[in-house]
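JOB MANIFEST
job_type = single_chain_structure
chain_count = 1
residues = 563
[input]
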Amino acid sequence: MASALNVMRLARKLSRSRILGKYLHTTSAGHQILTSPLPDVDLPSGNLTSLILNKVTKWGHHTATECSVTGRKYTYSQLVDGASRWAGMLTKMGMKKGDVLAVAMPNCPEYPIVLLGTLMAGVVASTMNSSYTAGEMHRQLLDCDAKMLIYEPALESNVDSALAQLQRPLLLVTNGPSARSGALNLRHVFEDSSIAFADPVELTGEELALMPYSSGTTGPPKGVAITHNGFSSNMVMYSVPASLPVKEATATTQGAFMCLLPCYHIYGILPICLVGLTVGVNVVTVPKFDPNTFVNTITSHKMGTLHLVPPLLNFLLHSPAVTTESMAHLEHIVIGAAPVSPSAAQSFKDKIKKQIFFQEGYGMTELMLTHVVPVGTDEVGTCGHLLPNVKARVVDTVTGEDLNAYEDGEIWIKSPSMMQSYFKNPTATAETIDADGWLHTGDVGHYDERGFFKIVDRTKELIKVKGLQVSPSELEDLLRQCPSVVDVGVVGMPDDRLGEAPRAYVVTSKMISEEFVHEFLKDKVAPHKKLAGGVCFVKELPKTATGKLLRRELKRMSMEGST
C-alpha cells in the first residue's frame, strides 16, 4: 500500500515538473523563478499619452466619459481636445516637465482628461483621496512637493486649511464654479479656443508619470513613483487577448465601464480609465456609492463588464434589484483589491441564472497588475498566472529559500511595470526592493503546477497560535459561508496561554449568537484555528475605498476593547 502511494506521489511530482518546466527556471544560485505561460510582448516607450491617443482617434463620435449622476459627458474627440488644451494651459501657467500636480477630485468625467493632459505636458500627477482631511491633504501636498492643486469646489474648506498649514503658495484650479476669487475653472479651459493645443512632449519614458499614494496599511502613506514606461508596459501586458475580456468598440458599437472604484487608486486609474479608453468604452464615473442607483446604472448602460471589489459583489448578492433581467448584458466581473469567495461567485451566478466569467487578478500600487485569470477560465479563488514579461519567486519567510509548488511563502516580483521608487524615501524603497531588483510584496501565497497563484495572507497578518500559523483570510472565507453572515474580518488578540487568539468581527443580515458562529466552525477547522478570542458583532468593517480590510483598525478596536 505504501509503495503504491509513493508511486502515485512520484507520478504526480513528475507531471507537475513537466508542466512547470515550461515556465519554471532554476538559476545557478538555486532560485526558482516563475515566468508567464504567455510569451513576452514588445513594450512601448516614450510619453504614455501617445500610446492612448493613437488608439482613441478612431472613436471620436463615441462617448469617452460620462457622469452617472449629472449626465455630463465628453466624446472621444472632446477628450483629446480637452487634454491637449489642458496640457497647453499647464505650460502657459509655468508648469514644467517633472513638476508635480496634485489632483483632489472625486470620480468625475473630467478626471481622465486631466490625467491625460497632465502627462502630455510631462507634468507628474499625484492623485489624492478626495475624502482626506485637511491634515492628510497637507501631508501629501508637502510630501509630493506639489506646485499645483486641482480640486472639486466642494473641498474648498479642506483645501484652505491644508494651504494654511503648507505655508507656501500653490497654483490652484477648480473643477467647476468656485467661491474663490479669480480661481481658474477647469471646464472653461476645455472651451477656451485661445489656449493652444499642445502635443505630447518628447520623453524617453523613464520620467515620472503618476504618483499615487500607497494605502498605508503597512506604514504611513508613501508616494509611489511610476514612470511613463511603467504604465504603458502594464497596459500592453494586460491587453493581450488571453487576459483582457473586453472587445474594442466599433463604428457602431461601444461598451461601458463603471468607474466607481476611485480614480486616485491604481485600480481606478489603470484597468478602468486608461485601459478602458484604449478599447473605446464609455467610462461612466460614479462619484460615490449609492445603493439606490447602483444597479440601475449597470442596467441603463447595458454594462457587459463590471470592475468590483468583494463588498460590492456582496451588495449585488443581497440586492432585490439584481435579477436575470437587470443583469441581462453582464458577461464579465473583474475582481480586485481582495480575494473573492468561490461560494459568493457561485451564488451570484445562481441568482441571475447566468454563466458569468469571474476574472480575479493580483497587483499592488507598487507593481500595478502582475497576475490575471485567463479569459474563459473558471478559476475563482486564484489570482491566475503571471502576465507576460513578469517574473516571480515564492520565498520562505524564515529561511529565505525558494519554495516549490503548493508551498506558502512571500511572493517576490520583477516586472517592467514596477515602481521606480517611493518618492524621496530611499529607506522605504530599500526595504521593499532588494539589491537584486526583486520587489517583496509582503503577500503570502503559492503557485500550482500550472503556474496559477493563490494569495493566502499578508506576512504581517498571520496569527501565531502556540507557534502555529493561522491565516485570517482562510477563517474569513469559511465564516462568510455561515448563514446570516454578510462580512467578516479576523485578527489576532494577545493571549497569555496561546500567544495570540483569533477573534472575528462579524457583520450579519439578522441577529445570530456567538455560540451559533462557534458551532458553525466546530467541525471545519483544527483546534488552533478556533475563535478563542471571541466573536464581536459590528455594523460595518473598516475598509479602504477599494474594499481592502484595514486589519490594523480592527486590531486597534480589539486593543481598545471596542465592539
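[summary]
The first helix runs from residue 2 to 20.
The radius of gyration is 24 Å.
exit_status = 0
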